[in-house]
Design goal:
mainly alpha; about 5% strand; 5 helices
Length: about 120
């Protein structure tokens, strides 16, 4: 759990560095944002997915991108010192944090990437 918190904080810091629309006033805000983001992903995101399930099915899952950006927007709204310029900034920050989690999981051996190639004669 602590590792995921650190990965989220690093991803948010990277998003702050790479994206103009994401900003933090202090480094400690990164960790508070990572903690709030984890809590929002546990409690708020499942409710949003449940209540928007029909539109998510109609859009073949693409509406989940809107939900992910909305969760980031909620965290930015709740936390002073964390600001997002808009939807695209939130979506970009989400993508960077998700990529950090994927790379961290691969490096730590939690999820192993296995590619199996078989030849058929």
């Amino acid at each position: 759990m602590l590792l995921r918190l650190l990965l989220s904080a690093c991803g948010l810091g990277l998003a702050d560095y790479l994206l103009d629309g994401v900003s933090f006033t202090h480094y400690s805000t990164l960790f508070w944002a990572a903690l709030l983001l984890g809590m929002a992903n546990v409690f708020v995101r499942p409710l949003l997915i449940f209540f928007t399930l029909p539109i998510t099915v109609l859009t073949l899952g693409f509406f989940l991108l809107v939900i992910n950006a909305a969760v980031f927007g909620l965290v930015a709204w709740l936390l002073p010192g964390f600001s997002l310029a808009g939807f695209w900034s939130a979506l970009g920050a989400w993508a960077i944090v998700a990529l950090m989690h994927a790379v961290g999981s691969l490096l730590m051996g939690k999820n192993k990437l296995v590619i199996k190639v078989e030849r058929q004669d």
